[in-house]
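User: ATP-dependent DNA helicase DinG, Kineobactrum salinum:
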Amino acid sequence: MLSDHAKDQIRQAYAAVIAGKGLGPRWGQRQMIAEIANTLARIPPGGRADADKPAVCVIEAGTGTGKTIAYAITAIPLAQALNKRLVVATATVALQEQFVNKDLPDIRHHSGLEFSYTLAKGRRRYVCLSKLDRLLAGGGSDSLPLYPDEFEAPQAAEALPVYTAMVEALGRGEWDGDRDNWPGQVSEQIWFGATTDHSQCSGRRCPNISQCSFFRARDALQHADVIVANHDLVLADLALGGGAILSAPEESIYVFDEGHHLPDKALSHFSSFCRLHTTSQWLQDSRKLLAQAAAALVPLTDLQRPLESLPGIMEEAGTSLQVVEQAVATLFDGQPPATGRGDDRQLRFAHGRVPAVLQPLAAGLATQFQQLATGLSRVESRLEEALEEDDAGLEQADIESWHLSIGAMLGRAEATLALWQEYAVSGEGELPPKARWITLLDNGGQQGFDLRCSPILAADILQEYLWSRAAGVVVTSATITALNSFERFILHSGVSRDASFKVVTSPFDYSRATLRVPAMDCDPGDAERHTAAIIGQLPQLLDRREATLVLFSSRRQMQDVYQGLRDQLGELILMQGDASKQEILRLHRQAVDGGGGSIIFGLASFAEGVDLPGDYCRHVVIAKIPFAVPDSPIEAALAEWVEAQGRNAFMEISVPDAALRLLQASGRLLRTEQDSGRITLLDRRILTRRYGRAILDSLPPFQRELAPGAGR
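Assistant: Predicted structure for ATP-dependent DNA helicase DinG:
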């Protein structure tokens, strides 16, 4: 039950913010405030809400609602009253920093609420002093990165001056070790060499702990009322059991802004993979490094036996990988594999079932990597103990250096073990099944195999790690429903149907925008004719004097249309892939500011999260209903599972997904209450197909111009 004091506090804070910022009260904000307050009021002072009525609400709040003010002025005082930590998670680091540097200071200044806040980032965003010391002392050559195939070691001549500058800046107090606060540009390779992850960190035993940038930032989390993170960091913390980086779930109220990303983000954190060739190379390199470790760590006599036995296990695992590689190669022979992106080919296993030839081989590798992980864990633990011993017989810097290397090995061994455990089972009886697939990589004529496994739904994951443990959760976004229903989000996220669900409409006047479907004599199903039709229609549809965003679902179609229009409109078109997203947007704004027109050709990443208000975007053209490109093994496995139950995967999965993407794409037009313009959809299926009408009815109430010939 919400107390009168809490009600008054929220009401007064909202009134103060509105008055202080010179805004008018918004009905949508009030609805959102009431929904969040009533939901969090279910949390008892000492624990979690009743399982039958969880303290979870899912709120779709249309663009312009003012979500940030609504959830902040409601959740902050309620979290304080319940003695819980408020964890606000955004989808990206950029949104995270905007919330910390602009939104929260503004709300605190105007609301009268007293609260502290801090920004939370993962270890990889902070420099590791131990690694810096090691690199500058010349010990970097022995280190093995966690995934050396993805991060090449930087050239010493390029990296060492940067590392020296970092140490000097830390010593002068001019830098706090946060990558985002470093004054210059740092390449991924150079930064990766100077940072660490949880597997290599010795924590409170590290001799540099008192100066550690990550732990200083983490200590600040223990005292802040509001912790601002991103989805990835929250999920990483939950995957580690919760409370490893952030506050424990039971002591936290979470707000997931842009929460429609949550299920997909969760899947990425609980998937596993192994690239055969590079893993074999890693095992060879690790064997050499362990031989050096055995010689260097002689004074630690209890480490000699594991250090001598581990290379043998690695050699056996390397031999097993060669056998697996031969078996995998036979799976690709004699049958046309599914086509993946680029020149790579994919072979997905139906219903997630592991081929009989692979299962026993994977079981053997799982055993070997389990032995490897166990042995490395013992070595790492002993090195941690040695860091606290005065008579270990070794220099502390040497112990620390080897701890980093062994920790990196352990992290990779555990990650690889997770993959082989997934392939050591048949996959029969899994509900829902997992997606398992192999990609044949072609890198300059050199072939290799990449094995992967992923859940197809995040429902069980989020139930185990989030919904069942958190004190309270608020999920909000401008786009959560699909086809006017929360069913899609419930399916993918596993949120309880007993949670609270609310749609808060946008304050925008959608009659200021017109949705047009022009006459066309072909469907996107005939790709060549559809592309030709777009090339023929765009010059008449576009106004060369204004700003236009043209969105494609296919890179090939985007490039073909560009080639077809290069002579007529080429000087106005900025195409994704020709420059970074940020640079394209900068050039687009520059052209508009100069009084000219500009046309952006973009793919999915331009259909969401791009903010081009006013004259920066007066026309959005959508080439076709944005059905997912059918090359994702996870989406294919999900559809297969739905079909196996006698259900219609197209109507249950593909159509709602496409409706959500179309809503996001059309949302690029109206960004403020004063905006106006046009949306043109070059896909007559929205009028001719039953599912098209359902998608059309789920869009905002734009004015409509549906050409009589559009449905021919």
